[in-house]
Automatic annotation (TrEMBL):
SUPFAM superfamilies: SpoIIaa-like. InterPro entries: Anti-sigma_ant, STAS_dom, STAS_dom_sf. Residues 30-126 form the STAS domain. The lineage of its organism: Bacteria, Bacillati, Actinomycetota, Actinomycetes, Pseudonocardiales. GO terms for molecular function: anti-sigma factor antagonist activity. Belongs to the anti-sigma-factor antagonist family. It comes from Halosaccharopolyspora lacisalsi. Gene3D superfamilies: STAS domain (3.30.750.24). This is Anti-sigma factor antagonist.
Length: 126
């Protein structure tokens, strides 16, 4: 079951395997920082959350995945869907990947598909 809390333009959504902190550093950008695991159990809720955030009037979406401990093929599918939605709507998408995300993107051949940065601040500045 998901819970949501709000504090000074930061929202946190928690689910059994993943937690997402949502932050708006400015009026045109959103940062979604995920920790835990992106797996089949988390997929439907994350898909809906990302759809909602990308439907808002933003130019840049940064997915901070640096605290993820696990990402399986459903996570790759989710990232590909987000990338397609961003391209179709003119949103700039940037990833801040963890080692496990880097690894699964490399193994699946999708590593070059995404714009990545080492930190959130670098992703926002790019």
């Amino acid at each position: 079951m998901a819970t949501q809390t709000t504090s000074h333009h930061r929202d946190t959504v928690r689910q059994a395997s993943v937690s997402v902190e949502i932050y708006h550093p400015d009026t045109r950008s959103v940062v979604l920082s995920m920790s835990g695991e992106i797996d089949l159990a988390a997929f439907p809720r994350l898909r809906e959350l990302l759809k909602q955030r990308m439907a808002a009037a933003v130019d840049t979406v940064v997915l901070d995945l640096s605290a993820l401990a696990f990402c399986d093929s459903s996570g790759v599918e989710l990232l590909c869907e987000v990338d397609q939605r961003a391209a179709a709507t003119g949103i700039t998408l940037r990833l801040v990947p963890s080692r496990c995300v880097d690894r699964v993107l490399s193994l699946t051949g999708y590593a070059d598909r995404f714009r990545t940065a080492a930190t959130v601040s670098r992703a926002l500045a790019a």
